Amino acid sequence: MPLIDLHLHSRFSDGTYGPEELAAQAQRCKLAAIALTDHDSVEGCQDTAQACAAVGIEFIAGTELTAEQNGNELHILGYCLDTLNARLLTQIATFQAVRQNRIREMVARLNRLKVPLSAEAVFTLANCRAPGRPHVARALVAAGHCASLDEAFERFLKRNRPAWVPKFKMSGAEALDLIHQAGGVAVMAHPGLNRTDELIPGMVEAGMDGIECFHTKHSTATTEHYLELADRYHLLVTGGSDCHGMNKGKPLIGTVKVPYQLLEALKVRAAEIRAAAAPHAVP
Ligand code: AMP
Ligand code: ZN
Ligand code: FE
Ligand code: FE
What we know:
By secondary structure, the chain is of the alpha/beta class. It has eleven helices and nine strands. It has helices at residues 19-28, 45-54, 86-112, 119-126, 133-142, 149-157, 172-181, 191-194, 200-205, 220-232, 261-277; strands at 3-8, 33-36, 58-69, 72-79, 170-171, 185-188, 210-215, 236-240, 258-259. Helix 4 crosses helix 5 (133-142) and helix 5 (133-142) packs across helix 6 (149-157). The longest helix is centred in the middle third of the chain and has 27 residues, at 86-112. The radius of gyration is 18 Å and the shape is globular. The mean pLDDT is 95.
């Protein structure tokens, strides 16, 4: 049975792999298809598509948008996106600016805590438009202020820790709309991590297409719970490793077993979404 991985980050957000390395890792894992889902970015999709084509692996253009619903953080995956869609790119640019300003604010808080670190050091290390807390953590480790990324999160960066800064987010419904209008399929990422079950009916009402049932941090029981919910709400099922490259030791890519047939259903939905958006277009 061919396997896929539909949740991967690259150096265009807080992953470490570049396009060729990601394709080579997918090849090593004998994956039939992968999706790139960088946080608030689609920048790596074109090069990763080429790198995958070169080694005969199917590529799905995606993203992972950070949203908020009723005060809860939600991650919404978008798949089969038109990565040149103007509104998607404009919105992504806005959220990338929010991320960059948040880095400056987190660094200012660290400085007030007498931790000397410059925003420039974080931006240089991040070397991407969608920097995040993992980059601040890596900069803290690189400068010798923390022994590990976990220590950096525990001491400073986790929610409500002294250098944590809340992030302006779009609503869940806005994320769904942004993905749909770019021809994409919208899926709730790792629901077991965000414990947002009570939001699922409302998100289904707002047009959400699927939920990520298979994920590195989902236990078998959690996966089964979300498979049941997917069945109840007639949602697509997806899955992926959420691999960020080598920053957590062994790469996670390919470690969550996701059957290819789930991608077939996803592509059928993507075709429906595009047909609905352009009902008079010649196929
Ligand atoms: P941000 O988008 O800037 O809020 O950062 C979120 C990212 O930080 C996620 O992709 C996680 O992979 C990572 N992250 C969150 N909590 C931790 C933690 N305790 N240790 C390491 N990485 C974390
Ligand atoms: Zn991440
Ligand atoms: Fe996520
Ligand atoms: Fe992710």
